[in-house]
Amino acid sequence: MNAIQNLLLYDDDSAGNQQFELTYFLQPLANYVVVMSTYVQYQTGTFSLIATGPAVINFTPNSTVLIQSNYTSVLTTYSPTTCHPDMCSNSNFYYEAIKINVFVAGTYTIACSSSIDTYGFLFNNTFDPTHPTENLLLSDDDGAGNQQFKLVYFLQPSINYTVIATTYYPFISGNFSLIATGPGVVYFTRISSSNMTAVSGNLSFYGVQLNFDTQALSNDWSLCYNDTYNVILNDSVLISILGICNKQKLMLGCRPVGSSLLSVAAMGLRGDVLYSCGESTSCTHIANGVGWYFAYEYSWGFVNNNDIVYRY
Fold this sequence. Notes:
Elements: E1 67-75, E2 81-82, E3 93-102, E4 106-114, E5 118-124, E6 136-140, E7 150-155, E8 161-167, E9 174-182, E10 186-191, E11 209-213, H1 235-244, E12 249-254, E13 261-269, H2 270-273, E14 285-287, E15 290-294, E16 300-304
Antiparallel strand pairs: 1-9, 2-3, 3-8, 3-10, 4-7, 4-9, 5-6, 5-8, 11-13, 12-13, 14-15, 15-16
């Protein structure tokens, strides 16, 4: 919906006392719509419209008026990754979590607009990337046409919802916009990965381990990547590693060549191990007794508990 389409005029305080006044030459065979709103958001109250002119004006409430709300953001290589909740076989899709709230109950449409092929999911309350089907209400791929998703749902004002905007193909980044239409305003709030619901995973050990024997791991764990220390972890190498190691729980470790023991090791949930530090050179994310740091352009690893690593 285009909020300024068919707009003839608008006003704020011409009637005095913070009230609007609209003056226009009306035709007898034309239909007109007056949209009444407030200057300050979230305000409610009673109001009256007083019309004067050469004849009677008939007022009829128009229940079909839809309000448009917009949200714009970008998926980058620093964005967290997850799988598609309706088919969780690959965990390498960049995503953004957006909390939405409404103050007017009704059916709302949330459509995506982007140059990339998008995929959308709607969750009741929160989204947990380690349990991606939990609280899932609906999903869509191409409902809006042009490879864009469209979510249509009856939203309640007393409930928090989460929209997950992601892509159809893994490791795709780009700008996107969400256009919501419905009987009221949709309020969008970006949820950072550090604000995601904390989930206690079934991890084999806590904190940073020294001289760790991988034979102590359960059969649920298996080696997904191994290489010598002189490999430069650039963008392409990291993308390849994350594509191979696509599980929800990860362990990082290093060992001397030929040794069966890891000199140092740590494990955590995928969202913690891959917590993006972006361009920051001093960043950690604490989880499972480990301070994690990850960024394509800098490095990927961990420190003991809440120690901070400085990268130059």
